[in-house]
Amino acid sequence: MTDIYENAANDFLELASEQRLNIIFKLLEKKSKISNMAKELHATVQEVHRNFERLANAGLIMKDKDGMYDLTTYGKTMCTQVPSLLFLSKNRKYFENHDFGDVSMKFIQRIGALAGGQQVKGFVKVLEQWKTIYKNADEFVYEIFTEVPLDLIEPLLTKVKQGIQLHYIFSEPVIVPKGRKELLKKLGMKELLEKGLVERKMRAGTNVVVVLNEKEACVGFPTLDGVADMREMFYSRDTLFHEWCLDYFRYCWYNSDSFQESKIQE
Questions:
Q1: Among 15, 17, 217, 246, which is most exposed with the fewest C-beta within 10 angstroms?
Q2: pLDDT class for 173, splitting at 50, 70, 90?
């Protein structure tokens, strides 16, 4: 076990350089010679050559018969792990007050997929971002909610009436505003359910909030005391970010119970 940690520590040491990280991610896009890489990085050939040598000795890159450098299988795989460090490092302050809540380990291991996300701060800005996701939807809106702001219901159901699919999961217990039932009745929720445009479920203990359509997504994690946070979210149109949110929603959907209106108290 000591040898494993020692080897891993050595690998971290080789990646502990802005230029070496730059090199391996540029090689992930295409092969390169040292001289070409030096031009791309606006660095000296000698400096880049030294870092190429270190990466090659670590087994992360290799040179072919034409003098072009490429990532090894090991190097390519390491590139898939670095985004997790980038995401956590970039959002270090956020995770001083938040954790991953009920997110299963298999999704935490993929957390680097969220590296392309940008923070949205402030309750009003978060709500406006969700409304934009509703507005931009052409096929569907999927949501996991622990709290339902009243002013989100009408713009969402208006979009559903235009033909998109709405699937949502409420946490148990969900916080809903007074007047929700009357508003749903006024907006024709019963008819939308009967037409199959709206499907809903409930899930005990969930405290992660997700809102997405077919091309953009938002996700927010709970505070350290386990309370869902509606004031800060991560948003992106990045493909990997969207895929993570979609996969997480589907995982929760298939692990949720049937919807029970009787459990909701206004």
A1: 17
A2: confident
Structural domain containing residue 67: 2-83
Q: How many CB atoms lie within 10 A of CB 15?
A: 17
Bridge partners of 167, per DSSP, are: 142, 199
Strands 140-147 and 118-121: unpaired
Look at the block and give the residue holding tokens 């949110």.
245
What is the residue-averaged pLDDT of the chain?
A: 93
Residues 192, 161: contact at Cβ < 8 Å? yes
CATH number at residue 235: 3.30.870.10
Return the pLDDT at 265: 79
Are both 28 and 66 inside the same structural domain?
yes
- For 40, the 3-state DSSP assignment is helix
- C-beta separation of 201 from 171 below 8 A: no
- Residue 265 near residue 181 (C-beta atoms within 8 A): no
- Could you tell me if 161 and 214 lie in one domain? yes
**Is-contact 154 182, C-beta < 8 A?**
no
Give the tokens for residue 142: 């999927």
CA separation (Å) from 234 to 13, 208, 212, 242, 258?
A: 30, 12, 11, 11, 28
Question: In this predicted model, what pLDDT tens digit does every residue of 18-56 receive, in sequence order?
Answer: 999 999 999 999 999 999 999 999 999 999 999 999 999
Lowest mean pLDDT among 30-34, 146-150, 159-163, 261-265: 261-265
* Among 255, 228, 253, 231, residue whose Cα is nearest residue 143: 253
Residues 179 and 245 in one domain: yes
Q: The pTM is what?
A: 0.87
